[in-house]
């Protein structure tokens, strides 16, 4: 059964925003009291938080799909919907979050460190919030915005000061068990340690952490054995301690060869520079010649110690079983850890808040002309216009008109005209995998072509009103026509054309 997981792919989805509501206030003797529809609540966020009590990503390995709660819809009487509850996911310290492309989003170090991995959707406005002097009684409301949905990779990279590295069964777990209170599994067969074990070591008034990394073999940097899976746990460690088995009976094994093989694997492993700083091959080295309680092993250790010291490496002969040489080793590791921490502090530059104001000519969207298999289309790309489309109820004609007004005021129609769009062109707004398709019909502004300079209107200069004399002439002309018609009828009657019964 799996008890330790240090890498998972997490599928997260933030909560949807609640819909706004279109409502009219009603009470006795006030049948139309005005709009009173409330706003929808915002959807909950998905947040990663460092929890010192969590040491593995096992829970997310078993259930990798996580979703925050949605915002509640609004109601009449100006009642806003409740916001969705944020989904807080505890992770171990030292968790690195990357996106599907492998880009590092955040390195979670420090208790209570937080990162919003998916943002909840905004709640839709009700018709009360949409009312204005021009639109006093909106018959529509805005829909809630969908929450972000994304896939992220959580990778646990142990946060320790010292890493114990070496071949399997070199005595690393035994060394951690006697230097700290950690109780790792210890047995007389290879690859006993399948997961990194962390222990806290005290040397005087100095405290630091030591990680027991699973055994490495030739080709570990290329994926052989367990090396590739756990070499990344060494990336954060400032001091590397080679634990060499001086009592091994395997053919072709000796302390100098073991050291060279592990060093070659360290140099071949490409570490993330943003996590550990220096490459593994440039970290501080200490060599521990272990199992000195065996007489033959101690003789071998005494023989190779001068050769190792000639390389400029600090060497200690110890026995984890007999507790020999441990005090000197713990103080030496503490000294190197202090130096490493001081170097890290000196390299840290204070963070500065960089303000990037919006450009004056930044409209918040772009119009891109594309040629697809179905013909030429015009794609409008922008977070604001995409949100407007998502919040529109296309079953409501008034809501569609409101969207058209917003897009027109934002300058979308002007940019479409500049890009070459004409009436009937296909316009796509929204993400490529879920865009809304429109057949564009430009908005016509009646009389705009007759407007002159500012404060002038050519329609006011038109003099088409009749004068009094013109109206008098028309009146007398009508009277004369009526008199002539009566005279003609009288003459026809006298001549016998009309006969009374």
UniProtKB/TrEMBL annotation:
Stored Pfam families: DUF1967, GTP1_OBG, MMR_HSR1
A molecular-function term among this protein's GO annotations: GTP binding
Cofactor: Mg(2+)
Chain intervals with Basic and acidic residues compositional bias: 456-501
Keywords: Cytoplasm, GTP-binding, Hydrolase, Magnesium, Metal-binding, Nucleotide-binding
Domain OCT: 357-442
GO CC annotations on file: cytoplasm
Biological process (GO), any one: ribosome biogenesis
Principal subcellular localisation of the protein: cytoplasm
Residues the record lists as binding GTP: 166-173, 191-195, 212-215, 290-293, 319-321
Domain OBG-type G: 160-338
Disordered: region residues: 451-501
Binding site for Mg(2+): 173, 193
EC nos: 3.6.5.-
Subcellular location: Cytoplasm
Domain Obg positions: 2-159
Enzyme class: hydrolase
InterPro entries from the UniProt entry: G_OBG (IPR031167), GTP-bd (IPR006073), GTP-bd_Obg/CgtA (IPR014100), GTP-bd_prot_GTP1/OBG_C_sf (IPR036346), GTP1-OBG_CS (IPR006074), GTP1_OBG_dom (IPR006169), GTP1_OBG_dom_sf (IPR036726), OBG_GTPase (IPR045086)
Function: An essential GTPase which binds GTP, GDP and possibly (p)ppGpp with moderate affinity, with high nucleotide exchange rates and a fairly low GTP hydrolysis rate. Plays a role in control of the cell cycle, stress response, ribosome biogenesis and in those bacteria that undergo differentiation, in morphogenesis control.
Classification via NCBIfam families: Obg_CgtA (TIGR02729), Obg_CgtA_exten (TIGR03595), PRK12296.1 (NF008954), PRK12297.1 (NF008955), PRK12299.1 (NF008956)
Subunit structure: Monomer.
Family: Belongs to the TRAFAC class OBG-HflX-like GTPase superfamily. OBG GTPase family.
UniProt-recorded name of the protein: GTPase Obg
Name of the encoding gene: obg
